[in-house]
Structure formats: C-alpha cells, structure tokens
Amino acid sequence: MSREKTRGFRVRIAQELYTYCAFWIAVSTLPALALSYVVVRISKHLWIKLLSSRYPHLEFIRTDTVRSLLDTHRNQGIINVLIGVKGSYNIEQIKNILTQHVIDRRDNDGNFMFPRLRQCLVSCWGNYAWDANMVFRPENHFIVSNAVYRGRPVSDANIQDYVSEIVSKYFPSDQPPWQYIVIPCISQEPKYYILVRVHHMLLSGTKSINIGDLLLMEQLTPEERHATDHGYLSPLNKLFPTPKAIPELLGKLNESLSNVWNEFISEYDPVESPRALKSMPGAFHVAGLLLISTASAVRELRKKKSNERTGQTSVTPASFISTIQRECKRRNLTMPKLIISPLVTADPRKWPRLTVEAAWCTTRALLKLPFVLKDELAAIRELKSTGQVQQTHTFTWRYAELGQTLAQAALEAWRCAAEVYKAPAELWSDTVGADDGKRHFLQTVSLCGRKVVSWSRPVPRASIERTGRALGVSATDVALFAATDAVRALFESAQGDTPDYVLATARAAPEEFLFTFAEGDGKEYKKSHTGGMVCLTLPIGGTPRRIASVISEACQCQKALSGAWALQTRYGALTRSVPSPLARLTLNLLSRRYAVSYAEINAPPEAKARTTLWKQTVDQVIYWRPPQANISLSLTVIQYADTVRLAVMTDARLSPSHTVPANRWPAAVEHLVAKVDQEIARIEAQAQSSGIEQTVTIETGPAAPTEIKSHSSEATLKPPTTDSFTPPPTRKRLTQE
C-alpha cells in the first residue's frame, strides 16, 4: 500500500512539473507569437495590396480560415445539404422564391445582399479572390434533374447512388461555386429532394450567406430560438462552462456607470439642462463640457461610419477635431470661457464660504460616524443570518448584491486562470502527445480529393433517448457507440486489421446552425453557436458506457483545446497569428493522425418537422461536412424532428465501402435498443415475482458487457442507477516514454 501511495505521489509530482514547464514554455513564446501576429498582418496586407494593384478587377479575400488553408484544387471544401420534401414540386414556385429571397434580394441601400452568388471564385498566387467581371446565368445554378440514373428513374432504391455521383463532381471553374438541384423521385407518396451545394468561401467573410438562406426553411421567432438554446442535452454542447457571474458583474457595472453618466450630463450639459450655464463655468465645469463634447463627437462619428449611405468609411484626425468643435459650439463653450475658467475657480471671494462648508461637513461626518458604523455592522449581521438587509440607508444594502457578484466573479476568474495555467500541457497531450497506436488504412490511404456520400435510414429518436436513460448515458453516447461499430464494419469490409481504437475529432451544433438566415442577427447567432472541438480515443467495439466515459473525460480535460478551436472559428486566432505555411503543415500532420471526423446536429426536445417557404413539409435533412487535408472519413449524426440519421462522407478511394457505415449504424442502434428493452422486460418480470435484486448483462460487442441492475419491482422502463465496470481507455503521452 505504501509503495502505491509513493508511486501515485511521484506521478502527481511529475504531472505538476510537466504542467509547470509547459506553461512557462508557452509564456516564453508569447513575445514571438505577438511578433508573428504583427508580421503576418503586415505582410498579408502588403501582399494583398500588391496583388490588388496587379489585378485590379479582382477582390481578394483578406482573412484566412482553416478550410481556406487546407483547400486544394482536388480537395475542395464543398458543403452539401440534402432535404426531402413531401408533396409534388412546382418548379416555377421554387425558382421564384429562391430568386426573390436569395439571388435578387436587396439590402436597404438597393444593393445585392449576397453579391458573391454572382461572382466567380478564383485562385491567384495562392490567394482566393472574387471576380465580378462575368455574366451570371441563374440557369447554371438552379438545376432540375432529369431524374434518370444509369437508364433507370430515380427512386428510393438508387437515390443515394445518384446523389453521391453529383457530390463527387467539382464545380465548373468559370461559374460561381454553388448549385441548387431539384431531384424528382418516384415513391409511393409524392415527394422530391433538393440538394444544396455551396463552397465554404461563400459562407464566410463579408457579404457572406448562411446555408439556411439556400435551404429556404420557415424561421423561428427570436423568442422560440432563444428557448430552444437551453434544450440541447449533448455533452459535446457543454465543452466549457459559460461564465455567469462575470457577465452579470459587467452588466451591473455598466448600469451603474450609465446612471452616473446620465446624472453627470443632466448636471453639466447645457443641451440637456439649460440651467447649467446660467453662471460663468469654472475649470472643472469646462473639463466636464469638453468630456461631454468628445463623447458626443465619438458617438456621432461611429454612427456615420456604420451608416453606409453617408459614404464615409474612415475617420481622420481633422474630421474628429471639427466634430468636437461643433459639439462645443452647441454647448456655447467658447475660447474666452475656456481661458477664464481657472480664474473663476480660483476666485478669492469663494474661499470663506468653501471653508465654512468644509468644516461643517467634516464635523457632521465625525458626529454621525459611530451611528453609521453601528448600522453597517447590524446590516452585515442581518445579511449573514437572513441573506437580506432591511436597513435601506446603509452601504451594505446598497452594495451587498454587487459585492456578492464580485466575489463570485473573482472565483470564476480564478477558475479561468487555473484552466489557462493547465491549457498548454493539456493542449499538447491531447493533440501531439496522444499515442495513435497501430496505424490503420484510414490514416495511410492515398486520397484523391473527390467525395462520395451515403446516409442511413432513420432511427426513432425516442428509442435512442430511452436506451440512453436505461443505461445511464446520453443519446450522444448511444449514437457514437453505433458509429464506432460502423467504423469497425468499415475496417472488416476493407479486409484490413481492425485497430483497438481510432483517434477522432468531435463537435456539435444546434439545428438552427443550419436553418437560420443571414439577415438580422443570423450571422452573429451562427458565430456564437460555433462550439469547440475535442479529440476522442474511440475504442472499437466499446460499450456505450465506455464511450460515455471517453466523452466525459475528453470534455473535462480538453477545455483548452475546445476553447482554442472556438477562438479560431469565431475570431481566426490561429490563422491571424501564425504564418499560413506553418499552420497548413501543422493541420496536415494532425489530420493524418485524426483521420475520422465526427459531428452532431442536435435538435431540441419535442422538435417538429420544418416547412419550406412555399408551405411544404420537409421530411428529412441530411448534412455532410467535407473532410479536408488528410481526413478520410466524416460522420455526421443529424437529429431532425423525431428521427436520427447518420450521414457519411468519405474520399472516393474508399468507394464502394463508404456505404458500409451507413448500413451498419441503424442496425447497431436497433440491436442495442432491442437488447435493452428485452432485458428490462425480463428484469421487471423477475423482480415483480421475487422482489430480489437481479443482475443481467447485455452483450453489445466483443468488449466488456454492459450491466443493468434491478433492486425492486418498480414498473418503469428505466432501471435504477447503473454501475460501469469498464474503465475508460488511457491516453498515453509520448512525452512520458
């Protein structure tokens, strides 16, 4: 026992030393990172300026993203979304709505809201640029399929092969990179499909479009959308806790400062209070007027800059000074008053009155001090005992809530500081330091860049959630368990060695991420709901509880990685501060190890099917995230209404095995659901007859079995709390070898 304690103590000391060294190494690189940021920004600006002077007809894109860094001519980042619509299609109606809402939509100034849809995307000297000198033809982008695939009409039997063939094709290089394809389908009930294909550069940057604008779904109200934000139960949506006390403290401070500023304006601003300049202003009054004039000038210039109709896009020192002079003139603040103000303040006739007032205030404060202290102590005692203060004249009553918020904010700030301290060590361990074990063919396959797709049949969402509750895990864990089983089937179909575990990246997003329009606050909503990313060591053939332990450990230990990825996605922290060749090399090396990408599109509880803008019900939504760099397999679980599907996108080199995960995933889910329902029914039957604790096992794969215990004869589908006997896989660090 003493040896184990000594060994555990040594391991802990080694971990602390590793964290300490990693933190100070990261701190020592901050000056180099800051210098790199300045150099990258200046060199990027000069390079774009040089290219713009050389090619004046092109509008170069100034901001890089991760996808733009990884883009190649063969491996392009093309987003694909397929929706199935119930009913018969009306081509003219769909075309008119697409034209009015997207193609010909105008902003308040009469300009095209999405002008990039009419421009061609070109690459010039390693930089993307938009070329507006082309003739835009809508018929090249709004396409009605002939609904014939290899001599047979498109139906539910061959729709996947037909869509996969369309997805595998590149965009024409002389046209804007987007397509809206209507696919008629022969089925028992009238329905058709719409395939939306759009290059990722259309979805980022200025004048960009959201993918939801092309899907043309009816929108939720802001209140409904805000209500759904709290209904997502996936652990991948809770990668890092959202601070509560710090925003609350900032809001209260902002409110207090606003009140103080309003009182200051009402006291000193002649525009708001004409009595403010009934007498000659002193030096302090003049300083207040200058401050108010400067603040008003800044507010006016910001308003002009945000208003595009004024045509003023920059603020010069001359315009700023002239605006301040104009504001001073509004307040009747002239140069003579400015010069004479110190004399007004230092007038000797005011000294006797000011001396008497100061002596009287000091004497009164000294006499009232014991009573004030008594009341404050009583208020503090009352606050400790009851949590409330009844004496409204005390400072404790006035500032107690603010003090409590300040203490909670300080605690949150301390926790954030601790996470920042551990971030460098965790970031290295979770990316470069993780052992990828035995290499598999997903890491070694030579990619061609073209993509093929498939998708699974729907699985009832209620059955997945019921199974998750029975096993004590989330619906995400059940879906990811089936995904690992689908990956195992892919290895078996390729007749290669199946590894013990696979390294994968995982992330999640709400369904409004797909459906929201760019107009209004749609872009900000999409950016704010772009979450982080974690790296998972997925055990092939693991049980749902083992998958749950892997996700839980990753979400708890990889806050630094998820936060860094969120900063990059929202603000471009990586691509703005690191030279693009170095960032591209790093991402290519990491994607060689993490060759599997997993994503979730989560719907809130009790979600209903959406309708299009032409009032037809959308039966299914399938979304594919394009794998780039060296990622060869992209899996996306989509929750829509009361169903769940798996969308698979792989490199064309994996065809025809790309259909194996889509076929295996629903079978794995249904097999697990049937086993759980069967065992629960047997437990309840035995418990009702004997009332003795029963233990059963569910064989979910070659790994350790999942156990469910029953302690009573309670008639419920959810058994008592379950115990897991399978430890999570350990992530071995290369730095410890």
UniProtKB/TrEMBL annotation:
The chain crosses the membrane at residues 21-40. The lineage of its organism: Eukaryota, Metazoa, Ecdysozoa, Arthropoda, Hexapoda. Keywords: Membrane, Transmembrane, Transmembrane helix. Residues 699-737 are annotated as: Disordered. This is O-acyltransferase WSD1 C-terminal domain-containing protein. The keyword NAD does not apply. Residues 544-657 form the O-acyltransferase WSD1 C-terminal domain. InterPro entries: O-acyltransferase_WSD1-like, O-acyltransferase_WSD1_C. It comes from the Eukaryota.
